[in-house]
Amino acid sequence: MSRMGDVLAGFHAAWEFASDSVLIRFERGIRTPRLLQALGERRIPLEAITGVTLTPGKRGTVVLQAVPRPGADPLMDAAAGQLKEGCDPYRLVLPAERETLAEYYADELRARLLDDGSAAADFLVDPPKAPLHFKAYDGKATFDGAAVSFRWFWTGASSAKWKAGDKTFPVSELSGVEWRSPELFEGHLRLVPRDAGLDERPGQADQDPAAVVFGLGYGPVHESLPFAASVLAAVRSASPSGAPPARRDPADIADRIRHLGELHQAGLVTDAEFSSKKAELLAEL
């Protein structure tokens, strides 16, 4: 950090340090998780980081990890604690012999952070760029930067979706995005219309024309999560100034917390991450 352009290379990624940010470049190798390959590189402003840890890893490695500030990164907001450890873009895994060097950079980063414990008012990390698209089980989702379109597949879409017809949702008419990982039960991407009340929305994603459902090989994380993050960032940018955030369905929040607890029990989410994300979810009620 004392010199512009210092680089710390690990497995699957390299961190380049600047005075006000960290540029993370992900490798394209076959061993690199597909989500990280899809992200390519990301510049993380220091104001988007709330902490830094260095812990022992598996099989002779150490893990340097930046803790994103709540509300600063649309990708992590959309993920809502559902990412597996190996897909976390804020982790840098290094050989154990580089621990001293990693500790130096960890200390340098900590010295530059201004952690006041508050959530960011605006996204500080750039979202994946549109246009984006992916195939879900029941339709194709497309985002051009201004609107989300769902085109239904006759082989998978429910009769409710066929009756509603193909849909297009301008981001100005949305208040949020819900992403449920395809690696969990009932994975889906659901758009939240700005003027729709909770009692007006179908309970199941396969019945909701504002949602697409995932399945085996459909809506993979490396395609659907960047899509959700890009839409989420566009929705926030299009929100009227001072408009209050939309209230989430309490049942959905409870379900998210339950699955977050499962990830925590499985060791995929740390105690601190679990507590922080649970507090964020409860704040949305």
TrEMBL record:
Domain DUF4429, first and last residues per copy: 15-109, 141-231
Entries under Pfam families matching the protein: DUF4429 (PF14472), SHOCT (PF09851)
Chain segments annotated as transmembrane: none
Record-annotated SHOCT domain positions: 255-282
Stored InterPro entries: DUF4429, SHOCT
Entry protein name: DUF4429 domain-containing protein
